[in-house]
Write a structure and sequence with these properties.
- 45% of the residues lie in helices and 34% in strands.
- The chain is of the alpha/beta class.
- It has one domain: STAS domain (Transcription Regulator spoIIAA), CATH 3.30.750.24.
- The protein has a 5-stranded mixed beta sheet with strand order 1-2-3-4-5, with helices on both faces.
Length: 113
């Protein structure tokens, strides 16, 4: 099960994910991602503090968004990464591809600097 809350902070969209981002739940997130891209929202922060588990489908959804917004001169930041998702990000070396922040405000602020 995945719950998420989407908020806007200026021109930055923040997704707070809670639960599991896996093969069963990633399609719902992908629909939200498509809506973001259609609206030209290209500055995104994922707050993963309450994400318990991520699998390859979840990673794929985030990486796909990352690649697509980068072509539009945007970016994706990761905030409050911990637990199993942090282990997966390190294992896949995604901690080198994404900027990772301890706080959501820091990630959002990075878009303004």
């Amino acid at each position: 099960m995945l719950d998420y809350q989407k908020t806007e902070q200026g021109d930055v969209t923040v997704f707070a994910l809670k639960g599991n981002l896996d093969a069963l739940t990633a399609p719902a997130l992908k629909k939200e991602i498509e809506a973001l891209l259609a609206a030209r929202k290209i500055h995104v922060v994922f707050d993963l503090s309450s994400l318990d588990l991520i699998d390859s489908s979840g990673v794929g959804a985030i990486v796909s968004l990352f690649k697509r917004v980068r072509t539009l001169q945007g970016d994706v930041k990761i905030a409050r990464l911990r637990g199993q998702p942090a282990e997966i990000f390190k294992l896949l070396r995604l901690d080198r591809a994404f900027e990772i922040f301890d706080a959501v405000d820091a990630a959002v602020g990075r878009f303004k600097s």
